[in-house]
Amino acid sequence: MAFKKITEQDSYYNDLEKMSTRELLESINKEDQTVATAVEKVIPKIEALVLIIVKKMSSGGRLFYIGAGTSGRLGILDASECPPTFGVRDDKIIGLIAGGDLAIRKAVENAEDDSQQAFKDLQNFHIDRNDVVIGIAASGTTPYVIGGLEHCNTMGITTACITCNEGSPLDKVASFPIVVTVGPEFVTGSSRMKAGTAQKMILNMISTSVMIQLGHVKGNKMVDMQLSNNKLVDRGTRMIMEATGVEYEIARQLLLDHGSVRNAIAQQGIC
């Protein structure tokens, strides 16, 4: 393999089974503290991708995540959190995982090795040039992800990736590659650790920045959040109280009547 697969390099630590619980926890934490610094170094790359996603989604496009294993699950997690948090439709940000929904909870043998399946999965959503596809793979060698992006490139669909190995096949195939180098894992090769943490941080940055720029946050409040449980109804009620000065019960009724913080405040002529 021509490139250096850092995610498979030996851990800086050894004899892990001989460590005390405190030593294990402190060592893992020490490694985790390096992740934010690694992510900081790729902010310009993340920025470039966010700008193109905002442009595409403003024109009706969608955002897709494709991945396998931990990487696929992280994409699904981020996609599934956007509708309740920002009030967007669940068909605007979509996460796909090798092996289908079963693979969310249980490993599906050889699913990630099929280089044709990701694009078949994307075609089920009638993907087109208005959309953006982000391939997530710590190793940068996952056939499911690489194949999906290669097919998208041939159709003129914007492609990006989040990987942890510079010069990997995935790095080379994506139009907007984000390569976050976190170094060897505490447990050698366990990319669900630092690599997974870095991927989650970057996904948070991408989706949150995009949603803010698309107008789903006012001030610092999630004014379009879905009222899917009592906690969120209470949070929305207090947002309305803060914005309008009305009492709790009045604010709560406004929220329930109008379905969102934004609409409730607008009815008061403020937002």
In short:
The protein is an alpha/beta fold and 271 residues long. It is built from eleven helices and five strands.
Structural description of this entry:
The chain has about 270 residues and is α/β, with parallel strands linked by helices. It has two domains: about 5-215, Glucose-6-phosphate isomerase like protein, domain 1 (Rossmann fold, 3-Layer(aba) Sandwich); about 230-265. Helix content is about 50%, strand content about 10%. It contains eleven helices and five strands; from the N terminus they run H-H-H-E-H-E-H-E-H-E-H-E-H-H-H-H. It has helices spanning about 20-30, 35-40, 45-60, 70-85, 115-125, 145-155, 170-175, 195-215, 230-245, 250-260, 260-265, and strands at about 65, 95, 130-135, 160-165, 175-180. The chain has a five-stranded parallel sheet, with helices on both faces. It is globular. The protein starts with 20 loop residues before the first helix and ends with a helix.
Shape field: globular
SSE ordering: HHHEHEHEHEHEHHHH
Structural class: alpha/beta
Number of separate structural domains: 2
